[in-house]
Batch of 3 targets.
Target 1
Amino acid sequence: MEHYDIIIAGGGMAGLSLAFYLSRSPLRSRSILLVDRERKEKNDRTWCYWERGDGPFEAIVYRKWRAIDFYGTSFSGSLDLGDYQYKMLRGIDFYRFMHEELQKLPNLDVRFGEITHLEDLEQGGMVVVGGKPIVAPVVFDSTYRLPQSTPRTHNLLQHFKGWVITTERDCFDPNRPRVMDFRVEQQEDCRFLYVLPFNKRQALVEYTIFNEQVLASEAYEDSLRQYIDRFLEAGSYRIEETEFGIIPMSDVAVSENPSQHIVRIGTSGGYTKPSTGYTFQRTQRYLQELVASMETTNQVPVRKQPGFPKWFKQALDSVLLNVLQNKRHPADDVFTKLFQRNPPERVFRFMDEDTSFLEDLQIVNSMPKGPFAMAVFDLIRQRALHL
Ligand SMILES: Cc1cc2nc3c(=O)[nH]c(=O)nc-3n(C[C@H](O)[C@H](O)[C@H](O)COP(=O)(O)OP(=O)(O)OC[C@H]3O[C@@H](n4cnc5c(N)ncnc54)[C@H](O)[C@@H]3O)c2cc1C
């Protein structure tokens, strides 16, 4: 049986990021195997996230903005992000950058193939690739598919289709991305558009829904066409690229350490923020914690689970999901109140779970009281029933 010190199962965003942080740590001397079924040669997704100052991927950030436009129910306007910048990173740039960086790591092997089996054995975690078993004391797994529809949890999906379009006329302000434009038929869901401009004539326009049911492909495309015709003075336009995604928005408890030698990371590890679907920055943060822990303990890393203030923030995710899933208040108005009644920096800090307890209470106070109280009551009732 082949042996490595570390196996990274899945070389997407989380697997590659982990290899990157390992390459910058004393652990770089360990033998590392990264396995993925794909070579990652397509621009299959675009990551947006917010950050203060420069991050580890600054050199490949495609666009960044200091203000965003928001269109809601009782409020629309431009929001200054203060110390934050909203950043966009193209999948293809990330994959190329990572593969170039990782070539510098002499002890890293990259193998392309299907992992047909992953199991914890006494001597370590085992993956089977091309019929061959490979073992390591620690396997980081980003290939595990999270269960959906677990009873007693909220299981929404964030699903979206986006087009990169080139327009006949100048119609985008390169300094003003639209982040959450709710001026579209809500159909009792949460539906909005992102418009992320590359220049005056090119942008990623993305139709996004939070609900339980993925649509037929044409339904997203009809909505994209209607939005472009109604809200952009584009003239004719050409579709350059398409992206489609489904991100779980669930508060199902995820086991990051399901067994002795296996650590789940990325979406598989439940790193997605349940109430927003944002995963990129949390993954960076959590993986840095894992690498630091492995450096000091030399053990299979276990991420410290949050104590009271963080636990409270995570409970707020469940409250918001409960409001959205049970349609207790129109979602467009919930997000409008959030941005109307709080400075954007506080909202971003809140979504990063970096706010103080007082700021959390200010956020809670900005929400429609009745529906949120009902959601809290419902959650307490459900927990009490299942104690
Ligand atoms: C289109 C799209 C846009 C997104 N945009 C954002 C965004 O703007 N901001 C944000 O924060 N999050 C975003 N997300 C959510 C999240 O950041 C991404 O899904 C991210 O790629 C998750 O990283 P991951 O490593 O967990 O999964 P992935 O990047 O999907 O990596 C998993 C890897 O495992 C491989 N794999 C799976 N099974 C096997 C197997 N059996 N054998 C071998 N290889 C296997 C896959 O090929 C893949 O490369 C987006 C998601 C999508 C789909």
Note: DSSP finds nine helices and 19 strands in the chain.
Target 2
Amino acid sequence: MTFVEPFPDELLSSWLTRMRPNRNAMNEPSLRASRNSAGHWRHPDVHPTKSMITELASNTGIAPTQIAKLGLCYRYPRINPDFVAWRYVPSDYLGRDCEPALSLRITWCSRCLAEDYAGGRAAYVRADWAMAAGGFCSRHNWPLVDRCVTCGSVDWAMKRSPQGPPRMCCARCRRGLERANPGALELEPAAHSLWKMIAGFEAALRDALTGKVPDQFRFNDTSASQLLDETSTICLLLARARRRAGLRDELFDRFATPALTLEDGCPDEPSCEMPLALASPSLRRCLIAICAAMLDADYGATGLCQGKLVVDIWSRTIGSMALKHFIQDRLTCSSTLKRKLEAALHRNEQFERMSYLRDASHTYETLFQDSA
Ligand SMILES: [Zn+2]
Ligand SMILES: [Zn+2]
């Protein structure tokens, strides 16, 4: 009996789905998330168990190391739940068994699917399509989507056909998902350099998730874990800054342009618990672009940073208390980001003093005019 070989960049569940015609020949392990003995949720695509890998290896004859690489925790040893794209994350509280189970938010690149189709290859889900640290395809610098461009449905399935290899199709209108987003096609000529820059920042995040030291020309004096923690913290503090909604909207308005959202509407409100991990692809692109503008020296080199500095608006949005706390956290905040944030704090204090003086002088002038 021959089994389907996994593609090196494939997600575990995608490979298992492709093997389904052979299901009778083996006991297919469960693809659903479940709680481990400590009560924590575990998803087989993120944390496949050793016994599952061994069982699959003995059933298929494929090397355990090759199978392990299809699980995100083996591909990215530093992965944590903030960098996985979730559709739903239940609490770890054991009493709530009626909740839906932990589930991944899979996005896809229509160009990768189009290449599969043109090459007569079976369509498959790339492991990176389940990552929250990715709004763009690293191969095509092309925006990832999570819904059908024809009918807007988020449900899809791998459709087999007697004429050719399996295709990834919309479950509602049944069209192939390799069709490109017409909005993205129209935007591409103008947005391409921005997409490429953000895809480059996402590649740096993925490298950091493998434990690789970031390029010190771009992320000076920053370790892999600092780059990851800084990214998570920038998103989290921004999502929680609800008291300064006006300033936060100013920042989002700047990034929520069609080039990043691909649609006219504003992206959804970020989650206060896991802003990046639970974000839609458009919100994810906006959040990652904000982080890139603050952390990546390449962002400045692209000439995309006109107007007020992003780090200044972000610092004012989260407030000086949260900012000082972040600066003091030497494990998370690198010395480079510390310097940038201190400079932003200084500029913002100067700005506030100036506007206070302007207001005071205006009040004085009106008072003088009134008495005259
Ligand atoms: Zn692609
Ligand atoms: Zn559809």
Note: The first strand starts at residue 34 and ends at 35.
Target 3
Amino acid sequence: MLFPLLINHGAPPDETHPAYNHAASCAGFCSACGREHTLAAGLAHAECTALMNLLHAHDTVDMLSAEPDPLLSLDYLRGEARGQMFGVLVCRTPQGAYGTLRAFSGQYNGIWSVPGWVPPIPDVQEFDALVRQDDPPIRELSRRIADLDAAPHPACACTDGHGTEASGNSAHETRKQLTDQRKALSQQAMRRVFSLYRLRNFRGQCAVLHDILPTGKGAPTGTGDCCAPKLLHYAALHGFTPLGLAEFYWGRKNRSGTRQHGSFYTACTEKCGLILGFMLCGLASPAGPKSVTQGTNDADTP
Ligand SMILES: [Zn+2]
Ligand SMILES: [Zn+2]
């Protein structure tokens, strides 16, 4: 795996740059601090535009390979799977250099890791092993439920006149047992998968995804797989300081039409909103080489 940080040259971006975008591109409520943490887009839009140009020119996400994997062609985003989110994080290294990290959301055509892109948060081998172990019994239950649904309404062999209702009830009971069992297994499997997401933040803390969810709340499948958490986790793990983040959609527009080719979007609230408060914790706010506002906010005097 090639190191995914692309080092930029020239002056590091700061908040005084005319193109600096102060709008928050991702946010989440941090229960430890009792407030929302945000990260601005900063100069990440320009880096996204550069990435869009590269995608356009290479027509693959396997841009560093001499012989790109056909599975990683952009044909995938034009087909039935439709488009996907891409993201860029501008950050500063502990040595003071600055560069950009790039991510695609989730897997790309079933592939987790592609050179030049940040890896997923969980260990891929552990993830695949869990799925191999947990999926078959869930699929078996789904098959049995489908069989029940496809069967003709249970006929009654009894002669007491109540049999039809009784066996109808028992089919209903069986179905309910199976769906309850499937629900319990799915929840267990989900919890086990989420235990592989050991999230880092900028306070040097590490927490399992499940433990940072608001009390009593579950998280949707795929939480932690969007670009923002992948990028922030990688940055925190390697001691990089985020300076700006932006995400855009690339490919055939999604079915509901809420995602359009080449448009920018802020991090999602339904998944990322649950974990970004923890993940952004410890970042100077707003992010920048010098946190100008921190001093002025604290001192309420001229
Ligand atoms: Zn998201
Ligand atoms: Zn916090």
Note: The helical segments are 44-58, 75-78, 124-150, 163-194, 209-212, 227-238, 272-279, 292-298.
